[in-house]
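Weekly sync notes, structure subgroup
Attendees: PM, AL, DS (notes)

Item 1: joint prediction request from the bench team. They want all two components modeled as one assembly rather than separately. Inputs as received:
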Amino acid sequence: MAKFLPFTGTVLHNLFHKPVTTSYPFVPKEYPERTRGHVEVDMETCLLCGLCSKSCPPRAIHVDRDTHTWSIHRFDCVQCGYCVQKCPKHCLSIVPGYPEPGAEKKLDIYHKPEAIEMKMGQVTVDLSKCVYCTLCAKKCPNEAITVDRAAKTWEIDHHKCLRCSLCVNNCPRHALEIREEEGGFKHPQADLNQCVFCTLCAKKCPASALTVDRATKTWKLNEKECVGCGACAEHCPKGCITMRPAST
Amino acid sequence: MAKQTVVPFGPQHPVLPEPIHLDLVLEDETVVEAVPSIGYVHRGLEKLVEKKDFNEMVYVAERICGICSFMHGMGYCEAVEHIMHVDVPARAKYLRTLWCEMSRLHSHLLWLGLLADAFGFESLFMQSWRMREKILDMFEASTGGRVIFSVNRIGGVLKDIPPEMLRDFLKRFDDMGADLRRLTRTFLDDYSVNERLRDVGFLTKEQALSLGAVGPMLRASGVCYDVRKTGYAAYGDLEVEPVVSTIGDSYARCQVRIGELFQSLDLIRQVGEKMPTGPIAVPVKGNPEGEFFMRCEQPRGEAVYYVRANGTKNLDRMRVRTPTFANIPAMLQTLKGSQLADVPLLILTIDPCISCTER
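Output from the run, pasted for the record:
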């Protein structure tokens, strides 16, 4: 008898209950608070340091310090949230609401509201050291560098260059450098008379550019790694770090 | 002897959402041999270790598969954590275990739905997926993603589950238990389901061991083997007893997976009782150097992660041995001697994940 019409209960239940599905799109879907829908940027606080673009696993974010823009390929972004973790100024966030569908892959460009003084230097090459290995061109996230090994030419498109310094960091011959300009990119400098070598600045540095040794009382900055975000100066309990234009 | 014919099966087939191709050698309607070929969805994810640093690779690893995404991310993270001697906080381990078991629940319910769909039981398929949907909602509420969770990081997890959310989840899982029991009656006792599953696709204990089958496929053939017993994440503190069936046919595989659903509910209850307080992650400094083999039990079986690091931010090698890859030889064995009409069902009983296999 138990096997007789075993689904009668289910049928009766379904007859007298509403369907479990919702009538989307007439009833819009309510997202939980934590839903990773899309990345939002607060351009007021953004420093255009480029750490988000360097860390983005699908390379969906591009930061241009020349035109003061932060842009994202919405279709490339996988909403992993790694940029949000990496952002030293906490100006990025992931909020509910998926990006709109589209007929073409567009780049969403955000401009920094006031043109702040942020003239970055240009990448220059010392051709006497360069061996035309093309590593810089391969590393360049925006294909700004063209290297021809046969013709021994090295060219850079300064409009395309993101000043991410990846080429500089990866050059095996140390032939590349970024020449900074006055009033532009700033590096921290510590007043060692006040410094207590508490290592807080090194811990807070998102680019791991600072090395502080309490035992030998040394404070060292790796200028190539520094992104000029000012997190060290902000967190210094003694206020002994100042952001100054980088030396050339 | 009857004349042999070769029937190409796949890569596109209504039962399989993912592409795998089989050349079926038939004598009348009986399969004598099956020759597989894979490679339709190879994405080269392992090669990406040369381009992405080891922290970014977490997000690549969890995109290997859309069903066991959490466990792929966790397996990779635990491998790197072992190399770097990172002591992961207890709460992070318990949260990982909770999400692992939720993944297993949703994966097995997905499989049950697909199985019902494969033998043409549409409403059973919908009932299974209705329950799976509730788990996906819980995933979205706790991690922010329905399929790809991105909550793992090297040194712990990124998001915490507040106590009130956890209580709510445990209550929902309790309700789900009652629903599941109703669903189970149909899967295990219904006449038409039994007709399709019983005595189809036998795999003996010896064959399962010699062909290197893993997961429910292995346990359905009577081998008591579950990597969760090794005690990774928080499984060491919990009571895990492998679900084993000795029959070895398609019905046994269904039975083992249903048993594991209830086991997962029990493990989630244990996690809820023992959930410790404290931090959910520890900071990790420096780069890894060394190598490690990490094994973890995914819904489909044992997955192996091999990670070799050279002291720089890029790893030397990451190799993933996924459970479907290990189960393909066993699947070919079950196909031998089966009827052509049973082939889609038999392929489905290993719970194939071709994206995992080809990475």
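Discussion: The beta strands of chain B are 4-9, 21-27, 30-37, 152-153, 156-157, 289-298, 301-310, 315-321.
Action: AL to compare against the crosslinking data before next sync.
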